[in-house]
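Intended use. Records like the one below are meant for learning the mapping from a protein sequence to its folded structure. Do not use them to infer anything beyond what is encoded.
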Amino acid sequence: MGVARAHYDAHGMRMTVEAQSQSLLDVIDTLLGAYASVNGGSDGFLVRLDYGQIPTETDPELHDFWKGTLPDGTCMVCRSGLNRRQVEMPGHVRADIELAARVARFVVNPNIKTGLLETCFLPLLCDCLGLTGHYVIHAASLFVQVGGQRRALIVSGMSGAGKTTLALALAGMGLGMLADDMTLYQAATANQPGQIWGIRTRCKVHTRTLELLPWLRDLPAGGASLNGERLVDSRSLKPPTTGLTVAPGVILFLNPRNPEAHHIEPVDRVTAITRLTRENVRAVDQRREAVAGRAFEALTELVRSSRIFQASLCPRLEELPERLASLWS
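Structure written out for the chain above:
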């Protein structure tokens, strides 16, 4: 049986994926296809995906750092050790990751649902990006033109706060959408300041959002409806943003909605760092020089270079562009 292979280069994060079948590779391509490359590079990550029996044994040197249940009831466990990770959905898929060697192997149940493999792949992607100076922020992001320069608008909030709805609404009003949930901050170097970019994914859109933004029905479907939500493919939104990086601008924290009017007010930087850290720094390794420590420093750097606000929004989204315009001045 032949091996399906693809190379990716996402702003210097190089990865080669080898899969036992094209259908397995297609799952990864939904995330990284926009960053397809001719070569993976000798310093990149090598990821192998194979069908097989999910191992039941675990290495005693690995410890659980996260365990929970996904919305569809699937159990997920993430384990960590020195330069090693293991991500498992028992009976569905397991990933064994060697960070120092930059190698990962996924064993996949032949009957797996596409979404489960994608979910299992995301922790690996976050680690790979972090090791190359990019830090994942659980936030939507867009960009606007301010004074002839593109500036990022990062929309942060707990799951269910309305990030995706707001991002899609603003994209429909003319803002450029970078990501609905997976925003990246490329830390500053001696040669360039920090930059924001994003990976567009399949958006989970509630039926109420479809009623509020009916034009979403024209986007390609990203999969079947589940629990009152529909998946839509945000990669078809215009303008395309593959390869685009923009300067930090505004971070907007979403508070609970209200029915009357949009309330937007400044947030101090200490509060902003606390809120971002709570959502985005995983306590895999708490040494300052390790991934978690570098992620905290990157978020602190991002907050220093941004204007920070919190908002309680009402349903009159058409009023938002004018309200948000004042945040840049």
